[in-house]
Amino acid sequence: MEQTVFSCSIARHEGDVDIEVIGAMDRSSAGQFRNQLLTLAKEHPASIAIHMDDLALVDSSCVAVLVETWRFTQEHGIALTVKSPAASIRQVFDVAESGQLLTLRN
Fold first, then answer.
1. Residue 19: how many CA atoms within 13 Å on its side-chain side?
2. Average pLDDT over residues 80-95
3. Are 33 and 65 in contact (CB under 8 A)?
4. Is the pLDDT of residue 63 over 90?
5. Distances from the Cα of 96 to the Cα of 10, 19, 41, 60, 67, angstroms
6. DSSP bridge pairs for 82
7. How far apart are CA 4 and CA 21, in angstroms?
8. Domain span at residue 23?
9. CATH of the domain at 88
10. Is 1 within the bounds of a domain?
11. Average pLDDT of the segment spanning 58-64
12. Does residue 13 belong to any structural domain of this protein?
């Protein structure tokens, strides 16, 4: 069975940050993603959009990272949006009570 590797690309434009996540985000990649997100958030952009079009898998550790980032962005007036999660990924956010804090967009 082939393992799907996690990666992300970051684009900045006019005070906004777009992050495209690819592959599988689980406990083994959550720390890397957390560091990248919080580093970006500490730059105080106007908004951060996390694009999940090409994300194949998430678990509760991903939700925890996003909620931690959401709390930071709320405290600092930064808009945080999760865009285009697949139905299976959206279910992970729906099941996790804290995942319901996040703004999910198609």
1. 22
2. 82
3. yes
4. no
5. 26, 22, 23, 7, 10
6. 50, 104
7. 12
8. 7-105
9. 3.30.750.24
10. no
11. 86
12. yes
Domain count for the chain, please give it: 1
More confident residue, 91 or 18: 18
In this prediction the pTM is 0.87
Apex CA 79: angle with CA 98 and CA 18, to 5°?
100
Q: At a CB cut-off of 8 Å and minimum separation 6, what does 28 contact?
A: 6
Q: Considering the domain boundaries, does residue 61 fall inside one?
A: yes
Which two structure tokens, joined as six digits, stand for 30? Answer: 């959550």
Residue 54 lies in a domain: yes
Residue (of 12, 63, 62, 14) closest to 39 by Cα position: 12
**What pLDDT does residue 88 have?**
77
The pLDDT value given to residue 1: 44
Q: Residue 77 contacts by C-beta under 8 Å, 6 or more apart in sequence?
A: none
